[in-house]
Design goal:
It is built from 17 helices and 17 strands. It has 512 residues and is an alpha/beta fold. Helix 7 (265-281) packs across helix 16.
Length: 512
Amino acid sequence: MQVALVVCLLSCDAFSAAQGDQESGQKAAEKPASASAAASANEKPEAATEKAELPPLPPPAHVEQTMQLDGKTLHYTVTVGATAVRDETGKVVGKVVTTAYTVAGKDRPVTFAVNGGPGASSVFLNFGAIGPKHVNFGNKGESASETPTLTDNPGTWLNFTDLVFIDPIGTGFSRSLVPQAQAIKLFYTTVPDIQYLSRVIYDWLVQNGRMDSRKYIVGESYGGFRVPRITYYLQSQLGVGMSGEVLVSPYLNPTIENDGDLSPLPWMVTLPSITAAHLEREGKLTPEAMQAVIDYTEGPYAEALIKGRSDPAATQAMIAKVTEMTGLDPTFVKESGGRLETGAYLREVYREEGKIGSVYDSNVTSFDPFPYAPQQKSNDPILEAVIAPLTSAMVNFVTQTVGWKVGDAQYHTLSYKVNQEWVGGAALRAGSVAQLRQAVAGDPDLRVLIAHGWDDLSCPFMGSVLTVDQMPVMGDPTRVAVHEYPGGHMFYTRLDSRLAFRKDVMEMFSKH
């Protein structure tokens, strides 16, 4: 089966449609893997397990760096190294590469970061959002051929927490050391993925003497699916309590978009983001304007969809209102019944210009090379432009700046192979809301911040709003909070949104 890969990030719409053909292999795929990460990153490579065509990964490398942040000089150490992953017999079956940024000082928290895909490395969060260095990508007008330049990141979290970026097996320089069929069972399946990544976090804490530190975890897109499950697995199985979770544009509740022929939920999820993109084009995007959009979506819009043909007047009024809110062609909205399917919208909104919008931010466009095809045939506009600068920047940083000489291994910013071989099964379709609720219930001090860009149609913010609104209040009602920012799936590529995001996360950290 094939999962629809979208950046760090899974396209929630496309993914659900791709699941139907995988039932036959589901039971075997969901058996928990016995792979566990152990041993030190300093251990000698085991020649018998390393793939013959690849040189062994080098020992850890370190470099001291400084940056200017809030008018002060921040000194930090960068460490790149690999942690062994073992199976139940103790055999090394994989190597997970981490990039850690640490600052000297007592009682510093540590935050682990993972992206999604499945098949995405952590470079998106690292060089895009929260690491000490930043490279421009993913915004309107940026080119894949531009030379990437690393600059100090004013949105970094490094002044208030150490950072450890994890590249899952098959992404970055991380690698499986077993045949592909075994790799799929150990690494490219929903439940084993959570287990070995949790063990990597456990081992890093042990190896670096950080078990007593306050611990946080951040995940983007499918990484946002991973985070509640990792948190609960660490809490309930490995004995590691996390102080907080940050979910960035999370793929949290996959089934919320099911059954659009009957349920209003799929259309309630997408309408606000489509409206946000229009408001931004009009220069009218504000929190107040978006609150009015949410109120309409949860009220008259949902009611009109539920009533259907039993109330023609309500339907006509809804179609007129949706046309006004989105700025779309009235005929398009009418023939859609006010139900705006993402793929159709992305082609319609810029059709007269011969362009297509990105599912991650529909205000970022590219020319449509197949404008007369019945469905989109080209890659996403943002994906087309981000791989080259991110890959070049990360490879240069790791191999030249840090000096982790990895030889001739390829760096996988996005691995389509991992994505295509991923076995999701029922565990994936169940989402991570159950684990989120259980982790919050099990630890009265755990706090969760869910962050979204208003324009994101791959994992729309309204899905998280609806999901959190259905959770029981467990103590402080602000312990689980949804925050929205201008921008799309990677809203943090915009400086103002990145700084606002940093401020909100700092406030969450200050409550511990």
